Amino acid sequence: MITLTVGLVATMVVADAASDVLVARAMKQIGEVTSFRPRALLGTLGRMARSPSFAAGIGAAAVHFFTFLALLSFVGLSYVFPATALVYVLATAGARWILKEHVSPRRWAGVCLVCTGMALVSIS
To answer: Which of 19, 58, 110, 123 is the most exposed place for a label (fewest CB within 10 A)?
Structure first.
């Protein structure tokens, strides 16, 4: 049971971080939403629908969601939720190395602080 739980948590964390990075990549390719007129929003939605990165991001988000549901069916939320703090590390690493964003040392320290806090919550 432990192996299954660890595998599902790892799948959930990787899928969540991947969905964040893929959707961010798609939105950088699509461009900034500057107008909220219906015609402009429909154009943006059309570009999103044709974006492979966006589709992959939505697929990864679905994997995350259904893995989360599966975990909650036999493990408590107090165990599952702290484990999701690892998403911050993977998503920030993805932003840095895949999306080529600048991630300052202060932001890395914040990610570490969040993870440390969640670790403390999970062991209490």
So the answer is: 123
Q: Which long-range contacts (CB under 8 A, 24 or more apart) does 66-70 make?
A: 67/8, 67/11, 67/12, 67/15, 68/12, 70/8
Tokens at 43, concatenated? 């154009």
Q: Is the distance from CB of 80 to CB of 72 less than 8 angstroms?
A: yes
Q: How far apart, in whole angstroms, are the C-alpha atoms of residue 42 and residue 20?
A: 22
Q: What is the radius of gyration, based on Cα positions, of the chain? A: 17
Distance from C-alpha of 68 to C-alpha of 74, rounded to nearest angstrom:
11
* Count of domains forming the chain: 1
DSSP letters spanning 46-110? HHHHT-HHHHHHHHHHHHHHHHHHHHHTTS-HHHHHHHTTHHHHHHHHHHHHTS-----HHHHHH
Q: What is the pLDDT of residues 56-94, one digit of tens each?
A: 999 999 999 999 999 999 998 888 888 888 999 999 999
